[in-house]
Amino acid sequence: MDIPKQYSPKETEEKWLSFWNKNKFSHASCQNGGESYAIVIPPPNVTAALHMGHALNNTVQDILIRWRRMQGYNTLWMPGTDHAGIATQNVVEKQLARENRSRDDLGREKFIDHVWKWREEYGGKIINQLKKLGCSCDWERERFTMDEGLSRAVKEVFVRLYNKGLVYQGDYIINWCPRCHTALSDEEAEHRDLDGALYYINYTVKDTGEKITVATTRPETMLGDTAVALNPKDERYAKLKGKKIVLPIVNREIDVIGDEFVDTSFGTGIVKVTPAHDPNDFEMGLRHNLPSINVMNHDGTLNEKAGPYKDMDRFHCRKQLVEDLKESGYLVKIDKHQHAVGHCYRCHTIIEPRLSRQWFVKMKPLAEPAIKVVLDKKITFLPNRWEKVYLEWMTNIRDWCISRQIWWGHRIPVWTCQECGKLTVAVDDPTQCASCKSKNLVQDNDVLDTWFSSWLWPFSTFGWPDVTPDLKFFYPTNTLATAPEILFFWVARMIMAGLEFMGDIPFQDVYLHGTVRDDSGTKMSKSLGNTIDPLDVIEEFGADALRFSMISITAQGQDVYLSPSKFEIGRNFANKLWNASRFLLMNFGEETESFTPYKKEDLSSDDKYILGLLNKTIKGVTEALEQFRFNEAAQIVYDFFWHSYCDKYIETAKPVLYGDDKDAKHTTRMVLFDVLNQTLKMLHPFMPFISEELWQLLHSIFPDDTELANYKSIMVAPWPKSDDAMIDDTIINRVDQKFEMVSAGRNLRSEYDIPPSSELTFFIKPETGELQSYFVSELIMLKKFLRASSITIDTEFEPQSGLPSAVVKAGTIFMSLEGALDAEKESDRLEGKLDKLRKALMGIRKKLSNQSFVNNAPANVVEKERGKEAELSEQCEKIEQNLAFIRSLLK
RNA sequence: GGGCGAUUAGCUCAGCUGGGAGAGCACAUGCCUUACAAGCAUGGGGUCACAAGUUCAAAUCUUGUAUCGCCCACCA
Predict the structure, then answer these.
(1) Is A95 in contact with A118 (CB distance < 8 Å)?
(2) Nearest residue to A552 (alpha-carbon basis) of A533, A572, A566, A535
(3) Residue A751 and residue A830 in contact, taking contact as beta carbons nearer than 8 Å
């Protein structure tokens, strides 16, 4: 068989992708029954291109899904995309702008048509990219948050909440993005510390002409001031109470109010009150019945209320106003001042707090049960610390502003009657007013927050509000894997929605992985230009390499630091797998051999050794996966495969394979096959493509092997089960001692600079007779590993001339030298070794002579120390003997 | 202002319920040994940020300090 020395992922990945797709291995049906295991994908935005965050997120999910599928669960991974209201509208508007057109040129209906067309043409390309990554979603079920079904769920939810009094319309201060021209929720406002200024401005007291100074960070809002506030305890308040204050420049008269909110120690202790542009001022306005003056347009320019500043941009106005105040002598001073400023999470424009009529969801009643299920451990967070973050947010939850002044999204199902002015709220478009029966209805112009559809994702994707068989079977889902960034946006809200509308939790485990950063620790983002494109990595290293590398460096919930060189881990590992398999294929191909599994009684100690370690590995990997310790699972298989199977077992197998004993050969082949087969299965969730390729190749060697015929794909082959009966620690320990002896011999060779090409004579003095007979039976092996022409094994061996030696657990190994021994060098070498051992021994002896250690430490710990003490002192003694002999040569 | 995370080898990081400091990369030396140079063998390298405490025993638990990073918060 002619197989290239290097694994090239490209064709392999394409081949199996279409194979899986054709055979629909990832399609789930509730009719197959069994125990369900379901994950709903965090739907990426339709506008998205695959980035490393997606790659990590979806690799984690695919590992879980593939693993559970192999374990025999009825497994479903529900895929789909999010319509991403503002983000998508922005993208399409930008595209229009390039053609010198705006959404207003098109008008609402045509614009929405245009977005749908855009989606068909360019949107959802991320789905194909996820396929390339190897994601085994049930692609037949792909959903979109604006699908007909999901849209119905959205309306249903709105109506239900409205009827329950949990959705209401009101005038409040909301976060307004002057660039997107829409309201945002509190979560959509990102607070960033900015170096701003605190402006001190003089206002005039009308009667007395006296000046009072207020401090503000946003002087332009002065134009909308309707009062000046002091703390009632402030003695200045008594003097000013009832007086009128004249606003500079605009010369409008406003009142003085007393309010506990005012902090006497901040600024001047006198606050300008702008109810239409500040949440605190708004509250004060309500308390004191103040008028609200909104001085801004929706695009952040000043309106007619701003007098001379009309049509000016808010920041231009600020500059001009400060200039004017300075000129007219009202500006006292400007202090540097750092403060948190809200930014639009979509376009990063500075948000304007603005009084506006919007729709809200009352959250407290929804939050209560969602707090309870977490406290009751019905939902667990991994890592656990996120539970606290979740509870903190939930307990201090504020109402959710859900209306958006954009066009792309779910239109609010509310109609206003033009006759009686009453509202009709309905799932199906009403033909007449619910109260006066007039047909003259106008639908609310706004659409809903994107998250108002995604919070229903775990059940809307199964057909809710219909109680479908899928919904009954797969809900609640099992695991949700996502990034902590959307804990509040999405995870928390899904829990609330699940409980409210399904009466049950949406998922049991929430696995929150870290954020992907570049190797300087900066979050990867397109705008910073520090991204690594996963598709480039797939192109260069392969999807398996990308997945394996990323997972093996991702500790549970810690952030991931990526640089291109990291992907070599996975690429090299894939290549190692490739070559080990190549070795098997080369040695299996020569004769058609029937597939007869090895018999336990025919196994050599090396066979038992590797099978023992295999079973330990299966146990370790399975446990690690159960605990969501993906990096550990990957590490365990990696280490087993590379350092035990390849470095040790394949090497011990070679003399057998190249020898004449047909039965031994067959047994060895079957063990080689079995162990690699099981390893490939364990690796499948991590490296789906190469594991499939090699599994298919290996199984195709044996015409009478049934696994390939039974399962057709490793994807649905059974997950390995560990068998304790296969783990014999005595044998594992003995074989380990053999390898330790080999290493000691190799070390001697290396320290004496003897090239591997020259064959040497070794003498092994085993510790016990039992080891002697074991080593004798392993003579061929030992000769191969040590590149020795002859090895003498004798418990009574005493060197007649000076020989370099090394002491290990199993005994002493001596190396013959062609020329005479440099006794001085050897004595130095031995002294060095002895020194190290003695230091270790001293530490242990000190411990053991400590009465409180012996009395207080558990018996097994003390016993272990005693064992170590015996072992080390014996080794020291032997080295001392050897050293004495060498020294005698020096005299 | 509150909360959280990180600090371990030159670099990137593991180290779960306290009991022998680990991996990968890099480095040094030697090897194209009939699976693999994307490899093999051998080796060097760490006051586990600092300080105090609990304990027979601390990288691991407690408290505090420092540095970096993140999240939340309506002091104008």
Answers:
(1) yes
(2) A566
(3) no
> How far: A753 CA to B27 C1' (Å)?
19
Question: HSE on the CB side for A601, CA within 13 Å?
Answer: 0
Name the token pair of A593: 């051999």
Q: Which nucleotide is nearest to A8 (CA to C1')?
A: B38
What ipTM was assigned to the predicted interfaces of this complex?
0.95
| Residue A602: both structure tokens together | 């025919």
Q: Are A782 and A791 in contact (CB under 8 A)?
A: yes
Residue A508 pLDDT: 95
Which nucleotide minimizes the distance between its C1' and the CA of A215?
Answer: B76
- Residue-level pLDDT at A337: 84
Contact A186, A175 (CB under 8 A): yes
Write out the DSSP string of A787-813: TEEEEEE-TT---SS---EEEETTEEE
Q: Please state, in angstroms and rounded to a whole number, the distance separating the CA atoms of residues A564 and A546.
A: 10
Task: Please identify residues in chain A, positions 685-744, with a C-beta within 7 angstroms of any atom of strand B.
Answer: 742-743
Q: Which tops the pLDDT comparison, A209 or A668? A: A668
Question: What are the two backbone dihedrals, phi and then psi, of residue A95, each rounded to the nearest 5 degrees?
Answer: -65, -40
**Does the nearest atom of strand B lie within 7 Å of A449's Cβ?**
no
SS3 readout for A173-207: EEEEECCCCEEECHHHEEEEEEEEEEEEEEEEECC
Summarised one tens digit per residue, pLDDT across range A501-524 is: 999 999 999 999 988 876 656 666
The answer for residues whose C-beta is within 8 angstroms of residue A890's C-beta and 6 or more apart is: A823, A824, A827
**Is the CA virtual torsion A159, A161, A164, A168 positive or negative?**
negative
**Any strand B atom closer than 7 Å to A399 CB:** no
Considering only residues 775-814 of chain A, list those whose CB is below 7 Å from strand B.
none
Nucleotide nearest to A216 (CA to C1'): B76
pLDDT digit string, tens, across residues A194-215:
888 889 999 988 888 888 899 8
Per the prediction, chain A carries an average pLDDT of 91
- Which residue's CA lies closest to nucleotide B38 at its C1' atom? A572
Residues 6+ apart with CB under 8 A from A396: none
pLDDT score of A555: 80
Name the strand (E) or helix (H) holding A656: helix A651-657
- Tokens representing A461 are 């994707």
The DSSP output letter for A301 is: B
Residues 305-334 of A with CB within 7 A of strand B: none
Model pLDDT for residues A353-399, shown as the tens digit of each residue: 999 999 999 999 999 999 999 999 999 998 888 998 999 999 999 99
